[in-house]
Design a protein that fits this description.
Structural class: alpha/beta
CATH topology of the largest domain: Rossmann fold
Domain ABC transporter: 24-262
Bound molecules: adenosine-5'-triphosphate
CATH class of the largest domain: Alpha Beta
Helix content: 25-40%
Region (Disordered): 1-24
Protein name: ABC transporter ATP-binding protein
GO molecular function: ATP binding
Number of helices: 9
Keywords: ATP-binding, Nucleotide-binding, Transport
Length: 279
């Protein structure tokens, strides 16, 4: 039987005595938005610790604050309450984001946000260029990543010449180029067709295992969350809070066949049931 844990108790063991410093620690984090119509409490009281090498998926209904959490972790949005630490160091201090923490992050959002005047290869290589990696090395690395995401033959194309899914794959390759310690992904495969999405899931799993990356992955797709994650965090809206945290203990690497097993589908059903309960 699948065991769901209440969010309130989930962090106790992780932050207990002797535990290693988590890659990411979110404590009591909230974010309000002041609009013409009043205040929106987008998220409130978020507590979550993520260990090195852990893959955590955030799921929940539209508007429950998943993107808001990811943007705060990514240093793009300041929390109005609580603290965030990357490797034990505050991400935000005196209203400013710690630039040394941000360099550890790789970010892939819903839109690819490629530079239109750069080729695919130059887009993928850009973070390496900004870090001073030599031209030959960064082009070789970008070429490998282009192959990895299925863009071989399109290295010299410009973003406008690619489909939406191909642009997104280039954005993923770009985020992976620096082998980030914390990879933040917001529905990165939402625009891809089902087969490409499945392939990207397998490739992402392999890359994450190879690089021991820590990942926070937002998705609407429960199956995708359970396939990829070590823990699935389910949020509820108004204000956005963590409702449940579900460990997924299948060994890795996982094969697509896993998705046909009763054990896998029991976890998917349990999460779907939680989401249905909200209605
Ligand atoms: N810049 C903003 N200004 C005002 N309200 C905002 C802003 N950004 C988000 N919100 C509000 O905060 C809440 C959470 O939004 P958020 O985009 O984080 O949800 P989400 O779970 O990522 O949704 P989706 O699954 O649709 O992407 C929503 O009520 C949204 O309207």
């Amino acid at each position: 039987m699948t065991e769901m844990r209440d969010a309130t108790t989930s962090d106790v063991t992780e932050s207990g005595a002797g535990a290693e410093t988590p890659r990411l620690r979110i404590s009591g984090v909230g974010r309000d938005f002041h609009t013409r119509n009043g205040v929106t409490h987008a998220v409130s009281g978020i507590d979550l610790s993520i260990q090195r090498g852990e893959f955590v998926a955030l799921i929940g209904r539209s508007g429950c604050g998943k993107t808001t959490v990811l943007r705060m972790v990514g240093g793009l949005l300041q929390p109005t309450a609580g603290t965030m630490e990357v490797d034990g160091k505050s991400l935000w201090r005196d209203g400013r984001v710690d630039s040394s923490a941000v360099t550890k992050l790789g970010v892939v959002f819903q839109e690819a946000n490629l530079f239109p005047w750069f080729s695919v290869l130059d887009n993928i290589a850009l973070p390496l260029k900004l870090r001073g990696v030599g031209k030959k090395e960064r082009r070789a690395r970008a070429g490998e990543l282009a192959e990895l995401v299925g863009l071989t033959g399109f290295e010299q194309s410009y973003p406008r010449e690619l489909s939406g899914g191909m642009r997104q794959r280039a954005a993923i390759a770009r985020a992976l180029s620096t082998e980030p310690e914390l990879l933040l992904m917001d529905e990165p495969f939402g625009a891809l067709d089902a087969l490409t999405r499945e392939r990207m899931n397998l490739e992402l799993q392999r890359i994450v295992l190879d690089t021991s990356s820590t990942v926070v992955f937002v998705t609407h797709d429960i199956q995708e969350a359970v396939f990829l994650a070590d823990r699935v965090v389910q949020m509820t809206p108004r204000p956005g809070r963590i409702n449940k945290i579900l460990p997924v203990d299948f060994p890795k690497p996982r094969d697509v066949e896993l998705q046909t097993t009763p054990e896998f589908n029991e976890i998917v059903r349990a999460l779907r049931h939680e989401l249905d309960e909200e209605e």
